[in-house]
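Annual report, structural modelling task.

Input specification for the zinc ion complex:
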Amino acid sequence: MRWPADYHTHTPLCRHASGEPAEYARRALELGFEEIGFSDHSPMQRDDFDNWRMRLDQLDEYVQNVRRAQRDFPNLTIRLALEMDYLPGFEDWIRELAARHPWDYLIGSVHYVSDSWAVDNPAEVHQWKDRDPFEVWSAYFERLGQAVESGFFDIVGHADLPKKFNVYPTRDCGPLFDRFLDRAARSGVAIELNTAGLRKDCREIYPSRAFLERAARRRIPITFGSDAHAPAEVGWEFAAAVDLARSLGYREWRQFAGRKFVAAPL
Ligand SMILES: [Zn+2]
Ligand SMILES: [Zn+2]
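The model returned the following structure:
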């Protein structure tokens, strides 16, 4: 079968990934992919914001590394992108980064539910113990709603990330999903099926089937991403992700170039 593009991959510049872009590209070709995109963690204005992203002075190097891979692998379409963190108050910074290079797409992700806590950070997992999961999930989806309404992003990254460590609210999250997805549908963004969840404690694609059923009902477009942080993770479990999407009625994925899109057959 023809794989949809793997639009979520990283590079060692973010300090928690291994393998050069050429190795990701080689792996993609081995698997029969026609298209991938690099979407490494974007820098913050202050390099001491956290320790899991490229430094600001590495942004040009990142772009050069991806451009080199594009030249070295003419048989593979390689997109240039970023995974950007959405935090309220960072709008000017996001706008500035978005204008710095001709990105093919921008993934908007919420990792931080407050200025200092990234819900998926293994070093901060103890923070879950002191909190009501439903409140964390509520804060997360509220922020994700703000992210889509900001209009900065083309794709929503790993939409139900708070499930990573398998900590779920006892209350029904359906209303949170509905409220967020109404906002997403109005904004026109795509949502990615991110297979990294299958490698985490939750053992499930981000977002869940229950979430994606609601997205499909609203005809929200989709993309696919492995969230590869190593070459061996490129295209990770894409067959499962494509099966899931097709079982929900999806027959297209959204293909990006220069921040414009077309519908590609699934
Ligand atoms: Zn990462
Ligand atoms: Zn992420």
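The longest helix spans residues 133-150.
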